[in-house]
Write a structure and sequence with these properties.
alpha/beta, 5-stranded mixed beta sheet, 8-stranded mixed barrel
């Protein structure tokens, strides 16, 4: 809850003095006028405190907090809302707070969800229940399912039915619901039972010192157990120490919030500190993407030209076709060029092997033995699409094969074994030729593309891109966060390359290569470095950014300072006749990259030796 969080701040003494100064606010017209001026001039600012997933330290969302003017006795939210209550302005002030928090959340394009503090009395106001909030977030471009109404209880709730009705109204609009300060206040446990919220926040009283208090630990375990059974996620708020974070991690609490993770800030961090990340990534196995996508090869690649039969053909004639051709497994049934079914060899032969079946069924039309609902796809369908169809279809369809058409007319078939062999081979090739994490071309297509450019005597610039100080980040923050940076870098390179002229490859790990044919490649590289310097900040806490890195332990257990990740680019211009193989380009680009890495921070080194000019 905001007031509780703020009470921990360095200005706590001043807040208490301010509270005493306005205890008789109702008798102070000047304070009343001051509050009205604040509302009229919208003199409130938002601060956001991250709420993280305890499983990996990623940002679930932010709680939106509010502050009055910095030089005002109403700067503290405690004083602000107390004065609003004294002058019957609670609903007005809350509405303004919500608007300002939502505006600044949208303006900063913060990731994840917004936890929006709302009191039950405001939620149940008639004028607050007819789309005002929904209309406003649509105006700001925020999706309703990104907003969580966090109920903050400042006074007892008496009409649970009315509150439940109001909550259902907001749920119907797409919002989620959270209950603040579970275990503190007037009726939070009953609210949980009545409202069935999506999130519950455990009051900070039960979090502080939890590593030394078995009663508090058991309370949190009990809440966690109830939450797991009721489909609610638990948020531990007020985490202030390393030991509390460890204890909550071991209990299995889903989410966390508190000063040890990050303080409220007008421009909040997008990432936890190295210290927090290491705690949460300990003993966790990274779930890497390991299954490459099936390439977009078309089903016509494995089309078999098998003669079809009409649905009026007699069964004994179909049997003769199977007996005369032992390798024939499937026969498509086609009327007027349109496939209507497929006959499986084993079904017909097995039936005829039974006593009297040949005599009884032999003269009848073959459609009694055909699958009337075969899988039919156009020859332009990709293997990936076909494999998905087979997964969702009846298992018998893989045995019976697939009918392939062209403009609705029968074109041929593909058998189940042919399909499985092709998909398997495509997966093998995908693993060999493309990086499964970024889906960029790997070493084989990179080398092939370089050789093709050299053979055609096309001028290009090979840029070797490498992340500096990536390994310690990977060790501290975990492979999942490391993968996030690899993917961010991949997306950044794609944004600054011309897909019609330039080629991007992922050599492996944190190494990329760009083969520029764009004439303005140097400017593109500078833009890449500028944006990388901005984007990488989202992966560190404010504390890490201020000191330019973080402390960690090396393999000998020694505390070392690790700088922030930076990007080095080594560029080699390849003109016709200068290089002859991809091996030469690779060596030259690697040398240029080594020179770039000697420069601290984000850097570009251009090998100008071929120009006869200094670097």
């Amino acid at each position: 809850m905001e007031s509780t969080l703020y009470a921990q701040d360095r200005g706590v003494l001043q807040d208490l003095l301010n509270s005493a100064a306005i205890s008789s606010a109702a008798a102070q017209p000047s304070l009343h006028q001051h509050l009205k001026d604040i509302v009229r001039n919208r003199q409130l600012t938002a601060r956001f405190q991250p709420i993280i997933e305890m499983s990996d330290g990623s940002i679930l969302g932010y709680e939106g907090l509010i502050r009055g003017p910095s030089d005002s006795p109403l700067h503290s939210p405690i004083n602000l809302f107390k004065t609003a209550a004294d002058f019957q302005m609670t609903v007005t002030v809350e509405h303004l707070c919500r608007q300002i928090v939502m505006e600044q959340f949208a303006a900063q394009k913060l990731p994840g969800k917004l936890f929006l503090n709302v009191s039950p009395e405001t939620l149940m106001q008639r004028d607050a229940r007819y789309g005002e909030t929904l209309e406003y977030i649509h105006h700001l471009g925020i999706a309703p399912d990104s907003v969580i109404i966090e109920l903050t209880e400042n006074q007892p709730t008496h009409d649970y039915a009315l509150l439940a009705d109001a909550v259902m109204h907001y749920r119907d609009m797409g919002f989620e619901i959270a209950i603040d300060d579970l275990g503190e206040g007037f009726s939070s446990l009953r609210l949980w039972s009545e409202l069935k919220p999506d999130y519950v926040k455990i009051d900070m009283h039960f979090i502080q010192g939890i590593h030394q208090d078995q009663v508090k630990a058991q309370f949190v375990r009990s809440i966690q157990s109830i939450a797991e059974k009721s489909g609610t996620r638990v948020i531990a708020e007020g985490i202030e120490t390393h030991q509390e974070l460890l204890a909550l991690r071991d209990i299995g609490v889903a989410c966390g919030q508190g000063y040890h993770i990050a303080r409220p800030h007008p421009r909040p961090t997008h990432s936890v500190s190295a210290e927090v990340a290491k705690v949460l990534s300990a003993n966790q196995w990274a779930q890497r993407k390991s299954t490459p996508k099936v390439q977009h090869t078309l089903i016509e690649r494995i089309l078999r030209d098998v003669p079809s039969i009409p649905s009026t053909m007699r069964n004994r004639d179909v049997e003769t076709m199977f007996l005369e051709n032992p390798k024939l497994q499937l026969i498509p049934v086609v009327d007027d060029g349109v496939p209507v079914g497929i006959i499986n060899r084993y079904r017909l032969i097995d039936s005829f092997a039974r006593p009297f079946q040949r005599e009884v069924q032999g003269k009848k039309a073959c459609k009694i033995f055909m699958d009337e609902n075969p899988v039919i796809v156009d020859r332009g369908t990709t293997m990936q699409e076909v494999s998905q169809i087979i997964v969702e279809a009846n298992p018998d369809h893989l045995i019976n094969g697939i009918i392939i058409t062209e403009n609705g007319q029968y074109a041929g078939i593909c058998t189940g074994p042919d399909l499985m062999r092709e998909i398997t081979q495509l997966q093998i090739n995908a693993a060999r030729y493309a990086n499964p994490l970024t889906e960029l071309p790997g070493n084989v297509p990179i080398n092939e593309h370089i050789d093709e450019l050299l053979e055609k005597e096309i001028a290009f610039c090979a840029c070797y891109c490498d992340l500096d100080h990536f390994k310690p980040f990977n060790d501290v923050y975990g492979y999942r966060r490391g993968d996030d940076i690899i993917q961010m870098t991949s997306a950044l390179l794609k944004r600054h390359c011309d897909p019609k002229r330039d080629f991007i490859g992922h050599i492996g790990g944190d190494d990329f290569i760009i083969l520029f044919q764009s004439d303005d490649w140097h400017q593109r590289c500078e833009q890449i470095l500028t944006e990388f310097a901005e984007d990488i900040q989202n992966y560190y806490s404010h504390e890490d950014l201020e000191r330019g890195g973080y402390l960690s332990e090396d393999r000998q257990g020694t505390r070392v300072f690790c700088p922030l990740i930076s990007l080095s680019i080594g560029a080699v211009k390849a003109r016709p006749g200068q290089f002859y193989t991809h091996h030469q380009i690779s060596i030259a680009a690697a040398d240029a990259k080594k020179q770039a890495k000697k420069v601290r921070g984000n850097s570009l080194f251009v090998d100008r030796r071929q120009d006869g000019a200094p670097n």
